Structure formats: structure tokens, C-alpha cells
Amino acid sequence: MPKARIVIAPGKIFDNDFYTQMLGTKIMYNDVFYDILLGANVFMDDDDINPLLYAFSPDGDGYGDVLSFCSQAVRNYILKGFQITDARGNIIASGKADTFNPKSYAVDSHLLTFVDDVWDGRDNNNLRYIYPDGKYYLTVFAVSAYNGSSVQSHTIPFYIDTQKPKITNVSVHGNKLSISASDNLAIQSVGVYNNETYDELVLFGSMTATSNVTVEFDITGVTGFIYIELIDYAMNLYTVRVSV
Questions:
Q1: What is the value of pTM for the model shown?
Q2: Within this chain, do residues 172 and 156 fall inside the same structural domain, yes or no?
Q3: How many separate domains does the chain show?
Q4: How far apart, in whole angstroms, are the C-alpha atoms of residue 88 and residue 90?
């Protein structure tokens, strides 16, 4: 996995006291958790965020298990709480908070992003139950930290997606390895490697990512076997080993 990035998303939430509407999650790399933004390709060094790809996968694998609210603010503010609703409008989870977040400032030409973990996909009444795949809505409540301000709210749709991407076809013609893959939402990357000298990665940016892809790799000099690894935008990983 790459070093996690924090990037800037365009747009505003609430009123002019805030810059962005962003959701995030966490990934584990070398036994350390990193915050990343949903809707962005974690491998790509760009600022593209696609809210249509906001998805996390609370399956306990260490990749994308927690939903986070990420903010960049022009004023100090206090996060007061949140609620999660399902597609029918039922409130299925909620939480109160009194978290002070200072206004964002620039670090290495990027605005600092503050991250608040809000939900792990579980039922408040039974932590052994994880809600099924589907569309949900996060509503956050916040107030600017100055006298006379009132509580504001904003709702952001997202998906629970625990379905791993699939390989639909693998073929080898001479030195060319062709891979076709599919996902219920969108594929972030297709990689091939053999733990020795060969390591190649094809990326699909968040604004052009699709649910079906076909990629080709030059495997000249590679013998024996190779690993194929797919990652989707909910951080579901699927790895297989094939002979070449």
C-alpha cells in the first residue's frame, strides 16, 4: 500500500464557515493506521474526489473499516454530533460529540484536514451486527465557535460495500498478460507482482473509474507464477495467484 495522502476537495458545506464536504476512512500499512479520503484514488497524487464513490467496507480487514468525517474550516468550530440513516430514512446510528476543531491552515501547500471517526457500520444496540451493503446517509451537526452562531447540519450520502472486485478473465498470449475485472461500484487499481523483480500497477482515477476494466501487462522474463491484486474504491482487496 502507498503512503496515505490528505488532499483538498472543492465545494462548501454548511455556510461560508466551512470549505468542504469529505468523507474518509483508515487503512493499515506496516501495522500503522493512516487516514485517507474516500472518493479519491489512494495511489494517485492528485486532488480529484468523486462523491459518487464514497464507500467504506466494515469487514474487519484493516482497510476501510471506519467512516470518518473530514473537514477543512475557515473558522474554529465544534462538532456536536452525527446520525446515520438508511435508504428509507430510518435513523440507525447516532452519536453526540463536543469536539473542538481549529480552522485549517496550510501545510506544504495543502490545507490541513481534520478527521473525526463517526461510525464502524455496527448497530448501537448489538455490536455483533454490521449493517448490510447499500446506500446510507451521514448527517453531521456542527457550530462555529463564536458567540451567536447556531448549530448547522449537512447530509452526505455514502455506501457500505463489502463486495470484493472480481476477475472475469485472464489470458496469456506470448509475453502479454490480459486481465478483465469487474466491481459492483468501481475499480481503483489492478496490480501484478511476483514478490521479486516484477511489480506493475494500472490506476483508474476517481472521475473516470468504472465497474468493468480490461488491462494488459508485458510479462517478458517473468516465469512460474504471478499475483494479481484488485482494489476497489471501498478498499476491498482481492488477490489471486496464477501461473504464467
A1: 0.86
A2: no
A3: 2
A4: 6
